[in-house]
Amino acid sequence: MSRLIGLGGVIAYRALFNWTSPAMFTGTLLASPLFQLLFFAYLGRQLGVADDTFYIVGNAVLSASVACVFGGTMAVANERRFGTLGHVLLSPRSRTAIFLGRVLPYALNGLLVAAFTLSAGALLLGLRIPPGAVPGLLVVLAAGSLSCGFFGLTLGAIGLRFRDVWLVSNVATSLMLLLTGVNIPLNRLPAWMGALGDLLPITHAARAARALVSGQGAVPADLGAEAVVGLGYAVTAGVLLKVFEAESRRRASLDTL
Amino acid sequence: MSAIGPGTTPATTTGVRAERAIAAGASAARVVIVGALLHVKQLSRSPFEIATAFIVPLVQATLAVYLFRAGTEPHLLLEAAVGAGLMGVWSSVLFGSGGAIQNQRWQGTLEMLMIAPRPAVLTLLPVTLANAVTGTYAMLGTLAWGWALYGITPDFRDPLGFVAAAAGCVAGLGMFGLLLAATFVLLRNANALTNTLEYPIWLVSGMLVPISALPGWTGPIAAVLPTTWGARAVREAAAGGPIWPSLAACLAIGAACLALGTLALVHVERRARVTATLALA
Description:
Radius of gyration of chain A: 18 Å
Distance between the termini of chain A: 30 Å
Number of helices of chain A: 11
Strand content of chain B: under 5%
Structural class of chain A: mainly alpha
Number of domains of chain B: 1
Helix content of chain B: over 70%
Oligomer: heterodimer
Distance between the termini of chain B: 42 Å
Largest sheet of chain B: none
Structural class of chain B: mainly alpha
Shape of chain B: globular
């Protein structure tokens, strides 16, 4: 099982580079989140909403979302796009394990992106991160990335039923900018938006990361909340994949939806 | 139509030339307008395009409204809504231009456009203009959203100037889009550039963050971007200020982009014909 999850995930990740390229990786996953961080940091400065630390740390944690949410979505949706979904679903092994395994490389990818964005943002805007906070930050970034990956996989599972899964992913990543408290403090949003934000990945990880950078030390409650959110999406993705797979077989609509 | 023969006077010849130039200009304008309408219709048939164009700008507008409310300048909500709308226009132009030629290639219509008995610029400019026109939804949608949900009255200092500035901004950005489209087709990894350019242009053009708040070295970059001047013209129409110089600068830079884009397209077309790689370039 561990070979199926680990090796399967790595092979699927490698297959990405059938159509993407190092330049696209750099531009989309490294440069773009950094520009996003700078945009909100300058906007926040100008409006006096919060200090640079708030925006650097928050946007660095959020930067994993593009790699992980779209990666998780692609884990399912690209099988259909390249005509290999039928082969995967014909596999005698657990499809849920196959798809859950694919999230892992994307989560690692997200961790790399978030670490790069945090380092580059800190260097450019002069944020000093206490060395003692680095291990904790890595754990928090990893939790956020994994949580995002499972969230993306949930959206990808929806793609087994609905054709326009990319629309859902695009809207979801836009909403994360608004609702996760990365750019607007959650107490400045209406209560219902804050409640929605609590159900999204990144929200709790961003809070934990800010606490670590400000020297407040470990924040198990926020880290635990992020893990629960991620686990919730992993379970949801597993259930949806099973349900939609069964429905696709029943309706003979695997590649036609 | 006058005939030119041995007995034609110079005055008549000049008249005929002028007549022909006017006819050619009108014909070119017709190709661009009809082409732009066609591509707008085509974009309006894509559920993905429609839904993305509807939803994402509203999320951005909401984000801008709450950011401005949370900050020290809540009285600038109209500027926030206008800025968010401009961001949507730029996103539409950027992603539309990035895919302008690639999409035609995927649809199998690039060859048709290139063999049309018209310069390539006249068949591709409508694609980027259509994306800019579609992007105006972002502006209208954002203003309507702000008015309906957050009570931001679109109380522009110069309503007619606002319409003129918005139209000029769309035209300027459409011409800029042609330069991007022509440049992107030369780059194998144009998509990477497309994804990268969204936030920097929002930032440097002063769509939400005033240019004065940015580091000094960004000034010269901002000065040569039509987005900067277009955004300034629209903002001045909304909040008060001299619209026309900014609008003129936006259109002048847009025209320069159009000229550069035309040259780039000529180069791309020649290279693709010589190497027989139109569908692959």
